[in-house]
Design a protein that fits this description.
The complex is a heterodimer.
Chain A: H1 9-27, H2 48-94
Chain B: H1 8-19, H2 25-33, H3 37-71, H4 76-129, H5 138-144, H6 148-179, H7 220-229, H8 235-252, E1 258-264, E2 273-278, H9 302-311
Helix pairs in contact in B: 2-4, 2-6, 3-4, 4-6, 5-6, 8-9
The chains are: A mainly alpha, B mainly alpha.
Chain lengths: 101, 312
């Protein structure tokens, strides 16, 4: 069953502003730069376990920064789309053809 | 970073342990002391910061939901944002497990370093307290001075102590290695890539356009029907749909807004119908219509698109 679409563009734009803030928060202070791990192969000791942990720690923290950056881009992209939608709704509303007199 | 092996007493203990057929407890102690715990801690401080960004970012995503729910009755955008928030929390959770394991490893390594340092210092003091003079072979001196029991006790207690420390360190590092097997990025793999159309159900006609280029969406239903027909297995429907698609592509080459004003699928009893505007018909002051001859069909309307563009 079809349902009427209810839109309030001021609120859509308000949500977009909050999403922009979310995007900045996800980006943190990384500034988009790649994190450099200070751990070297032998930092934690000479055994295979120590080397495994040093390597995995370097990799995983960098891998955790990547999704935070990805979520930042997604939130920013979603905010843009919401603004585009709000503009389109406003345009559509203003261009509705009046009925016959 | 200190190396305890440099003192004569510890060197003598190491040599004596070897003579007794034991592993060198001084070397084990040094290995524990030399672990760069601070670098590990520093690296996981970065991970803790990322955790905070994820937590705060997820909360800001949640904050966007009430105004969006009030502003747009379509639940699609809210679902899309909720998925992003859930992914952020999932990444944070995996990272949280890894940070907790790293914290545990850091505190165990730090405590072990202190214990190892204390054990080495204690052994050194004990040997010196027995009256051993630097430069003498420890075991030969102990045999000559009836101190074998005391010296072997010092060596075995030191060995026990540093081996305990090493076992605790290995256990903590193994837990950290296990925690690090999970990929924190996996939770966002299923999310739409930025820039993709589809994560947010845009109103008709706005997909992929910037707000500045936003256009009225009077043709979306027709475009949707055309998209369906392009998947059709009916050869007539598909052929006409392809013809209309070609005409749209050709018309867009003019750089103008192109709208599919009319589109009826071909197939069954219908030959199909299509009308394309070059320029935005909803804002046009004047509209000129070009009707191709009776021999034309939607299948071959691409040629007409070029003519229409020239009319402008």
């Amino acid at each position: 069953m079809a349902q009427d679409l209810e839109v309030e563009t001021t609120l859509i734009r308000q949500a977009a502003d909050v999403l922009d803030d979310a995007a900045r928060t996800f980006a943190g202070d990384a500034g988009g730069g790649e994190l450099t791990c200070p751990l070297s192969d032998g930092s934690l000791g000479p055994t295979a376990l120590c080397r495994e942990v040093a390597g995995a720690a370097a990799r995983r923290v960098q891998q955790a920064a990547a999704p935070a950056g990805h979520l930042s881009l997604l939130a920013s992209d979603t905010a843009d789309k919401l603004r585009t939608s709000a503009t389109a709704f406003e345009h559509a509303e203003s261009s509705v053809i009046a009925g016959p007199r | 970073m200190s190396t305890s092996n440099s003192t004569p007493a510890l060197s003598a203990i190491g040599i004596a342990a070897g003579q007794l057929g034991q592993g060198d407890p001084v070397a084990i102690g040094d290995e524990i002391i030399q672990v760069d715990v601070e670098v590990l801690d520093q690296w996981f401080r970065t991970a803790r910061r990322i955790q905070i960004w994820l937590w705060q970012g997820a909360h800001r995503l949640s904050d966007s939901l009430p105004p969006l729910a009030g502003g747009w009755s379509n639940p699609g955008p809210q679902l899309s944002i909720s998925r992003q928030r859930d992914a952020a929390m999932a990444v944070r959770e995996v990272l949280g497990t890894q940070v907790a394991a790293a914290d545990n490893a850091v505190s165990t390594l730090r405590a072990s370093r202190l214990h190892a340092e204390a054990a080495l210092t204690g052994a050194q003091s004990s040997v010196s307290g027995l009256g051993w003079a630097p430069g003498e072979d420890l075991l030969s001196w102990a045999a000559a001075n009836d101190r074998i029991t005391q010296v072997t006790t010092v060596i075995s207690e030191l060995s026990g102590s540093v081996n305990d420390c090493r076992a605790r360190c290995n256990e903590a590092l193994q837990l950290l290695a296990d925690a690090l097997r999970a990929d924190p990025g996996q939770a966002v793999d299923g999310l739409t890539r930025p820039g993709d159309v589809g994560s947010i159900p845009l109103p008709p006609g706005t997909a992929g356009r910037t707000p500045e280029a936003g256009q009225p969406s009077i043709d979306q239903e027709n475009l949707d029907r055309l998209a369906l027909d392009l998947q059709s297995t009916d050869p007539t429907t598909l052929a006409v749909a392809l013809g209309v698609q070609d005409a749209l592509i050709k018309a867009r080459e003019s750089g103008q807004v192109v709208q599919l004003l009319v589109y009826d699928s071909a197939g069954g009893d219908s030959q199909g119908r299509a009308a394309i505007s070059v320029g935005d018909i909803s804002t046009a002051d004047n509209v000129a219509t070009l009707a191709p001859g009776v021999g034309n069909a939607p299948m071959s309307m691409a040629g007409g698109s070029a003519t229409t563009s020239r009319c402008r």
